[in-house]
Amino acid sequence: MSDAKDEPKPRERAEPLTEQAYRELEERIVTLSLEPGTLLSEQHLVDQTGLGRTPIREALQRLAGEGLVIIMPRRGIRVAEADPRKQLLVLEVRRELERLLCRLAAARATREQRSDFSRIAAGMQRAAETADDLTFLRLDRELNTLLIEAAQNEYAMRSMRLLQGHSRRFWYMHYREAADLPLCARLHAEQARAIAEGDADRAAASSDRLIDYTETFTRTAAGSAGRQRRP
């Protein structure tokens, strides 16, 4: 067994308050701490997070742009509902975008970013071995962020950011009844490892395998949700 101090750790980076607010609120929405349909207020979120009104407001605007919350003037903010059928439409776009981003990241990632991809791959492998859902979810978000940064294409980045929260929330809503978490974590590890090693073809193929699995999972989860709604 390796010593914990030898395990790769993320480098600490200064994080703007708005980014901190966004990350915290997005995780609460994705992990259903803030459930679909929940009514929110800026002041309540300020009190809960200890962050200022401006970072919370800017984070909510970003989440609204991604479709995860709905801002209702003079009435508050509502967490958007989740429709399993629409997730298949999300995947149609994700397949093409993610394949492109993986190719670009494999070619353009810096040495530091390649090190981060390797660290995430190792973390995903450990999550697969322990079936650690929360670690998987956090590494998934970190991988998504690193992928779009390393690809260095602002237009693909903007498009991908609109899809990521929806995908992660759908996963969290349904993975207990429909997912093979160890398999999914291993597929993420393969994707991150290929990018770290600069192999664009293997990175693209890994991305396709991951989306193939995600589509199977989504159809299973959507079918299960449909059966539960029937009288």
State the helicity in percent bands.
Answer: over 70%
**Beta-strand level of the residues, as a percent range?**
under 5%
Low-confidence stretches: 1-8
The SSE string, one letter per element, is HEHHEEHHHHHH
Tally of domains = 2
CATH architecture of the largest domain: Up-down Bundle
Provide an overview of this structure.
With 231 residues, the protein is mainly α. The chain folds into 2 domains: 17-79, Winged helix-like DNA-binding domain superfamily/Winged helix DNA-binding domain (Arc Repressor Mutant, subunit A), CATH 1.10.10.10; 84-229, Four Helix Bundle (Hemerythrin (Met), subunit A), CATH 1.20.120. 74% of the residues lie in helices and 4% in strands. Helix 5 runs antiparallel to helix 6. Residues 1-8 have low confidence and may be disordered.
In short:
By secondary structure, the protein is mainly alpha-helical. It has helices at residues 17-30, 42-49, 53-65, 84-108, 111-130, 133-151, 154-178, 181-196, 200-229; strands at residues 39-40, 69-72, 76-79. It has two domains: 17-79, Arc Repressor Mutant, subunit A; 84-229, Four Helix Bundle (Hemerythrin (Met), subunit A), CATH 1.20.120.
